[in-house]
Amino acid sequence: MLAKGLKILIAECEPPPAREKRRDSVGRSSGETYEALLEHVAPGASWTRMKPADSGSTPPSRSELEQFDAVLLTGSPLHLYEDSPECRRVVDFMRAVFASGTPAFGSCAGLQVAAVAAGGAVRAMAPRREAGFARRIFPTRAGRDHPLLRGRPLAFDAPSVHTDEVATLPDGAVLLASNGTTQIQAAEISSAGGIFWGVQYHPEISLYEVAAALRRQADDMIEHGLARNRDDVELQARAVDALHEQPDRRDLAWRLGLDEQVTNPVCRSIEIRNFIEHLVLPTRSRRGRDGNSSAIAADPGFDGLS
């Protein structure tokens, strides 16, 4: 079934240097990763990519944002506790999204941007790290019944690479998932009439992109004791790369401590599909938008993104 006629705005929150570094690493920016995923999780939808962190960028008007059925916010290396022009621009953008009432979803820094825009706070993680995968994420009592996490078990792993985290959720937000490393792994945030669903982890990225992120973050991992040297990081990255190429290899999954929640791309990206099916499509229907939208289903040919 198709999400025909859906119009999605992808907000690529990374600044230009980080965007090019990521392209050099995996061949695509964070926004382009979302584009590739949408081809599988929302067939029939169309999307536009914008760069709210870039110099000269200004938030779209309310009427411009109302032309979209959903907004997706990508990850980014921005530190939202810094008063930089890039941070101010992405936070202003998210405030405009909230005010427009357009449903929004964000991963990693996307969650942090929404939290700050609604009055919450972000902090550095100090010595703690989630490098490669967030382990044993568990839904809170509220999260067990929340449609964002529908289909997830009571404990699961997910791709995750971050050095910052949400310190305080804004008033009225609902904590949906936690783990032993990062308290705020998923949340619903409401502000100015808009609703945001977000996660600290990365349901949008492939195992290939996880391996590349490990290589990019090698110095930080060594500094924080997750690896002794670059050879250690490379061994881990090669194992993740190999599992990307052969996701049915049980020996690699065992070695990495992973199951189908990570190795199966349909399971791995379930939050984004849930966001579209359980928030975007019902909101679109209530708005009386033109077009024929129906519940979405996983692309049976979806075998991961290179």
Largest sheet: 9 strands, mixed
What is the percent of helical residues? 25-40%
List the helices and strands in order.
EHHEHEHEHEEHEEEEEHHHHHHH
Structural class designation:
alpha/beta
Radius of gyration: 18 Å
Under CATH, the homologous superfamily of the largest domain reads: Class I glutamine amidotransferase (GATase) domain
Q: How many structurally independent domains?
A: 2
- The CATH architecture term of the largest domain is 3-Layer(aba) Sandwich
Order of strands across the main sheet: 2-1-3-4-11-10-9-6-7
Kindly identify the CATH topology of the largest domain. Rossmann fold
Task: Describe the oligomeric state of these chains in a short phrase.
Answer: single chain
Distance between the termini: 24 Å
Shape: globular
What share of the residues does DSSP label as strand, in percent?
A: 15-25%
CATH uppermost class of the largest domain:
Alpha Beta
Number of helices: 13
Name the average pLDDT: 93
Which parts are unreliable, with pLDDT below 50 for 5 consecutive residues or more?
290-294
In total, the number of strands is 11
Summary keywords:
306 residues; alpha/beta; Rossmann fold; 2 domains; nine-stranded mixed β-sheet; two-stranded antiparallel ribbon
